[in-house]
């Protein structure tokens, strides 16, 4: 079996200095574990200059697009990691699926305005990556065997050069963030969801509001400020032709390692306290909350069903239920659902059967997505989509793009939302939707003149 070539570099806990060297290159994508501020992500990886770029064609079915991605990956060819070197990525696909890629997998209405016009998905096929392993404290360039020796040498020279990259340019907002809907509209939407629940139409619906502001300057500077303010284990930066995706997500969507599948849904949130005592009390309140545990359990059941479509019968388990995870701005209630891929199925089948994530749609999923399209005035775009990789061996890891800012065509967009159930109080949900993204909005608003 062909094996990747690995070139060691001095270990860097923070990938930003090296990624800055390629951040403006075509297809530049960083999947960032948030180190050293965040401590749960084991790996960082990034690449640029893909061999091939893939996006869905007009009217193309989602499964047909995923089949094209599978074929592109096969054309690169499988490559293994060298003996004794544990690698998450040996060349393959890096990119995103927007939330609205789900429209290509399921029949959904088209009421919400598609005003941002972000493609539903975009991947690059990459034959190299720079990978850092924070457990072993190593950094290395990883070259797929198909990459020409001349390109390998150029990349080694680029990252071994002593010169420091140019500092990021300036970024600033031109006005404060403004919500797309007001409190009255938010209340009406929550009451409509609860009417659907009373009618037996659904059990839970994730409802979000969007905040927007005009911007100018360098998206990379904005990402640096956001990462400093809110380090998270599933962060990422993806360059766009007219901006970038800046994600500070704490949530894993799906991972596949040697056929073993895991998803880690977040459902249940409290703000951090103003002092240690208040912080402990808020964490204890979340852990004891019957409402939040019930919401989390609904989504765990949904994800057990989603994973069951692609996993071996009897293999789906819930090894962790209602665990507390704390971040700079919030406490979260997190569970884990695992399984083993069924024979003959792969990461693309898993995505087709599970996307978008149940924690950010509701239950039952398709009905919840229909209600979201009815009540949210605009499409979600990258929000609640995923940044992900699928490598040449079929390994995958992916985030859910919450706590995410889309910088595109001079407009910054950021979304906050939460799961609505029968006993949700609209005022509390309204405040929670703002709490979840407050650190992002305030960090960027600090750039206002």
Number of helical segments? 10
CATH topology: Anthranilate synthase
Structural class: alpha+beta
Shape: globular
Tell me what portion of residues adopts beta-strand conformation.
25-35%
Which parts are unreliable, with pLDDT below 50 for 5 consecutive residues or more? none
DSSP strand tally: 23
Can you identify the CATH superfamily? Anthranilate synthase
Task: Give me the Rg, rounded.
Answer: 21 Å
Description:
This is aminodeoxychorismate synthase. This protein has a single domain, classed as 4-Layer Sandwich (Anthranilate synthase), CATH 3.60.120.10. The chain has helices at residues 16-19, 62-76, 149-160, 183-198, 219-229, 276-288, 290-308, 347-354, 365-375, 426-445; strands at residues 5-9, 29-32, 43-47, 52-54, 92-97, 121-126, 128-133, 138-143, 171-173, 178-179, 204-217, 234-240, 243-249, 252-257, 260-263, 266-271, 317-326, 330-340, 362-363, 386-391, 396-399, 404-408, 411-420. The strands form 2 sheets. Strands 1, 2, 3, 7, 8, 9, 10, 11, 12, 13, 19, 22 and 23 form a 13-stranded antiparallel β-sheet that branches. Strands 4, 5, 6, 14, 15, 16, 17, 18, 20 and 21 form a 10-stranded antiparallel β-sheet that branches. The longest helix is centred in the C-terminal third of the chain and has 20 residues, at 426-445. It has 449 residues and is of the alpha+beta class.
């Amino acid at each position: 079996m062909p094996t990747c070539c690995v070139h060691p570099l001095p270990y860097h806990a923070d990938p930003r200095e090296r990624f800055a060297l390629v951040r403006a290159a075509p297809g530049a994508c960083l999947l960032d574990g948030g180190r050293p501020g965040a401590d749960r992500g084991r790996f960082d990886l990034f690449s640029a200059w893909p061999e091939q770029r893939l996006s869905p064609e007009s009217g193309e079915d989602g499964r047909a697009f995923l089949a094209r991605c599978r074929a592109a990956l096969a054309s690169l060819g499988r490559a293994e990691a060298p003996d004794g070197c544990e690698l998450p990525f040996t060349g393959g696909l890096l990119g995103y699926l927007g939330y609205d890629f789900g429209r290509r997998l399921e029949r959904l209405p088209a009421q919400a305005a598609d005003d941002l016009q972000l493609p539903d998905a975009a991947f690059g096929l990459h034959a190299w990556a720079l990978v850092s392993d924070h457990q072993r404290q190593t950094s290395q360039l990883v070259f797929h065997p198909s990459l020409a020796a001349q390109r390998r040498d150029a990349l080694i020279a680029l990252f071994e050069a002593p010169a420091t990259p140019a500092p990021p340019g300036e970024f600033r907002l031109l006005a404060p963030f403004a919500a797309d809907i007001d409190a009255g509209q938010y209340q009406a939407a929550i009451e409509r969801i609860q009417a659907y629940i009373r009618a037996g139409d659904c059990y839970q619906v994730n409802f979000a509001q969007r905040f927007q502001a005009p911007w100018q300057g360098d998206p990379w500077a904005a990402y640096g400020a956001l990462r400093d303010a809110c380090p998270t284990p599933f962060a990422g930066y993806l360059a766009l032709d007219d901006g970038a995706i800046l994600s500070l997500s704490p949530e894993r969507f799906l991972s596949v390692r040697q056929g073993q599948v895991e998803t880690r849904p977040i459902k249940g949130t409290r703000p951090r306290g103003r002092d240690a005592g208040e912080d402990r009390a808020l964490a204890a309140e979340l852990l004891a909350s019957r409402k939040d545990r019930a919401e989390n359990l609904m989504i765990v059941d949904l994800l057990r069903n989603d994973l069951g479509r692609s996993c071996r019968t009897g293999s789906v388990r819930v090894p962790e239920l209602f665990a507390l995870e704390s971040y700079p701005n919030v406490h979260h209630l997190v569970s884990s659902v695992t399984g083993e891929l069924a024979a003959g199925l792969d990461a693309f089948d898993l995505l087709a059967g599970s996307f978008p994530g149940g924690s950010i749609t509701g239950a039952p999923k398709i009905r919840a997505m229909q209600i979201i399209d009815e009540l949210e005035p605009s499409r979600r775009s990258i929000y609640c989509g995923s940044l992900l990789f699928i490598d040449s061996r079929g390994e995958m890891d992916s985030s859910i793009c919450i706590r995410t800012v889309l910088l595109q065509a001079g407009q910054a967009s950021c979304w906050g939302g939460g799961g609505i159930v029968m006993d949700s109080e609209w005022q509390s949900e309204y405040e929670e939707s703002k709490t979840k993204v407050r650190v992002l909005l305030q960090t960027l608003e600090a750039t206002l003149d």
